[in-house]
Structures are given as structure tokens and as C-alpha cells.
Specification:
The chain is mostly helical. The protein is built from three helices and two strands. The protein has one domain.
Length: 96
Amino acid sequence: MMHSPDLERVAHVIADNVVSAVIRDPQSPLRDTPSAREAAATAIMVEVLRILPTEDSDRLAQACNRGLGELMITEASGPVVTAVNPGDGSVTMRQG
């Protein structure tokens, strides 16, 4: 399925925000590996694009968590996305 550049931009912003939040965790496997950060961002973008367009913060958060989970980036105690602001792509995280 082809996505509009606007939807891809939104998914990219959300994915970048999630990855930026995850790497703040001192034990994050993404901290020192740029290729892992890129893979995580891509996995999140794919999941987010599957549900766009949507304004549902919970659905966006679930999509982000599926993307992280695909690469096993987060463990049970790791950071998870709890909310995504569909307007600006900002994310709210918590420890799992």
C-alpha cells in the first residue's frame, strides 16, 4: 500500500520520538548502536503506517510498542509508550 508523504512524515516523527525516549534508558540496547536505532525506527514506522490516519493516541501507542516488540527492544521492565499526541507526534513513556 502506498502512503502519502504526509503520513510517512508523521510516522517518522513519532518513530524518532520513541527511539529518542528509549535511548535515554541507560540499559537500552539502542544507546550505542546507530544501526539498531535505525532498525527500531523503521519497525515503529511500519506499525504506525499500518494504522494511519488515526487520531487515537492509544492505537498509536500500541503500534509503537508492537514496533519495539518486533525487535525485542523492550523487556517486561523496559520503557513502553503509553500515549502519542497525534498532533505533534510527542510521546509519553513509562517503565514497563
